[in-house]
Amino acid sequence: MEERLARARRQNSVEGGGSVDVCEEAANVDFTDSGTVNKSPKKSRLYTLQAWILDKAYTLMADLSEDPEEDAQKMEEEEELSVKILKENIKRARAGYQPIGQWMKAVNRLKSWQSPSATLIAFCIYMYASWHGWLISLILGLMLWHLTKTWLISVGCDIKFSLLPYEELNANSELERNLGLSDKFQIVLMVAKKVQNLARDLADSLEKVHNLVMWGKPAITRRLYTMILMLFIASLLLPGQWMMTLCAMMVGYKLFITGNLYAKFPRLRAKYDSSHIMWKNLPTHQQLSRSRVISQRQTYVVVNPDDTVSEEIDPAPEHKAFCELFSLPATEFPLPGWEDGKRCSLLNKDKPTNFKNGRIYLTNNFLCFERTKSRRSKSQNIVIALAEITKLEKAKPFSILPGAGMSIEVYIPSVEKPYMFGGILGRDEVYASIVKEMEKGKHQQQRRGSGDIKQD
User: Fold this and answer.
1) Residue 408, beta-bridge partner list
2) Which of 161, 169, 168 is nearest to 118 (CA)?
3) For the sheet containing 366-371, what is the strand order?
4) Structure confidence at residue 288 as a pLDDT band (50, 70, 90)
5) Does residue 386 surpass a pLDDT of 90?
6) Contact call for residues 28 and 8 (beta carbons, < 8 A)
7) Does 122 have pLDDT greater than 90?
8) 300 membership: H or E segment, kind and range
9) Does 224 score more than 90 pLDDT?
10) Residue 420, φ and ψ in degrees, nearest 5
């Protein structure tokens, strides 16, 4: 075999061929013991298949591997806050949302019967298609018509016909003019306000859905559960085509008939629109926690048969605002002479410079403290049930001051240190009023207890 290889090399050198060609030819020559030389193809089909499979496998592994460098690059590419960029993005967002907004307005005008003839035709076509089971075909046909129309417009055709009553667009050049510093600040303020309101509405909606599913208000979730149960039973008894037809016709009736009536007459909507009533009565997390606090504080309310105030009667607006401020039952309101509260300061003996100015209010069953700057932060307010007060004393926190002092200490079991309200004008009268209401509450509790014993 070596002699044959050497003879091939000498022959190749005589003919002028390179050593590389000899090596390539030798790689394709099969030397066997029989002395025959077999030449095989350079790449077989099996080899090609294996190479293709390996290439696809490596490509898939590369796609599935994490690449943190791309994420870091995206973070670096984020633009900084700029009024110019904000202005451009607002214009782009407005231009992108404009067709959607115009379409939604056109649909609203159609179902609100602003053009009675067009709405009547649309209602008849919708109900006819729903009755015969052609609703999906109708929707797909409208989508095909819209795409065909936009294609014709894109190739240069001037088409003014539309199935929906669109309004003519008015050019708004408010953002086209050059803006000064105050205008730029107003734009940033406007965007921040809209984002804040949008985030609030979105959070309220999500919290309502959460409380609906998690039985935050059992009465409303029970109604939804009953409706779903009835639909489930109907779906088992009726054919699927009938169910689809009935649901489609109910949706059409609500969109074109009852929806228009409820939009024009809010009183009808407040009385008979079940979906609107359920959604309106669903609480957010804050409202749910507030209702729980009110129910807990309701246990401290002493029923007085001489009182003429009832929960069935709507309280005055100022009483309602007072109850919302302190999360109190609707029967609680300031006593005569306490409508505007008494000015005072919540003192801290350990830190004399740490005090909170505000007002205290006295009701039949509660002593309330409102911090001066707490209208938007109700968590800083303090509500003390008179039945919880174990000790009430007149106090003088600073001995260097003349007189008998202008402070009151309130002891309750749930707080380690007593509440000290200082700087109260007419401290003795305030103290006497609180003691009087405490004694009245204890007397009424005793009467109620003795009445329960007699009934037994």
Assistant:
1) 394, 421
2) 161
3) 382-385, 366-371, 356-362, 342-347, 419-422, 407-411, 391-395
4) very high
5) yes
6) no
7) yes
8) none
9) yes
10) -120, 115
Task: Find tokens 């929707």 and name the residue.
Answer: 139
Mean pLDDT along residues 134-159: 92
Q: Which residues lie below 8 Å from residue 98, measured CB to CB, with a gap of 6+?
A: 169
Q: Tokens in use for 219?
A: 């009465």
Cα–Cα distance measured from residue 389 to residue 393, given in angstroms and rounded to the nearest whole number: 11
| 119: nearest Cα among 110, 131, 132, 127 | 110
Q: How far is CA 222 from the centre of its chain?
A: 23
Closest CA to 287 of 218, 368, 207, 366: 207
The SS3 assignment for 178 reads coil
Neighbours of 14 (CB within 10 A): 8
Helices vs. strands in the chain: H and E counts, helices first: 16, 9
Nearest Cα neighbor of 133 from 243, 234, 236, 235 is: 243
Average pLDDT over the chain, rounded to whole? 81
| Euclidean distance between CA atoms 23 and 29, whole angstroms | 10
Given the DSSP bridges, would you call strands 356-362 and 37-39 parallel, antiparallel or unpaired? Answer: unpaired
Q: What is the pLDDT of residue 17?
A: 47
- The tally of CA atoms less than 13 A away on the side-chain side of residue 93 is 8
For residue 62, which amino acid is it? A
- 200 CB-contact burial (10 Å; exposed 0-12 / middle 13-18 / buried 19+): exposed
Q: What is the average per-residue pLDDT within 341-350?
A: 89
> What one-character DSSP code corresponds to residue 174?
T
| Residue showing tokens 């909170």 | 356
Cα separation, 43 vs 217, in Å, equals: 74
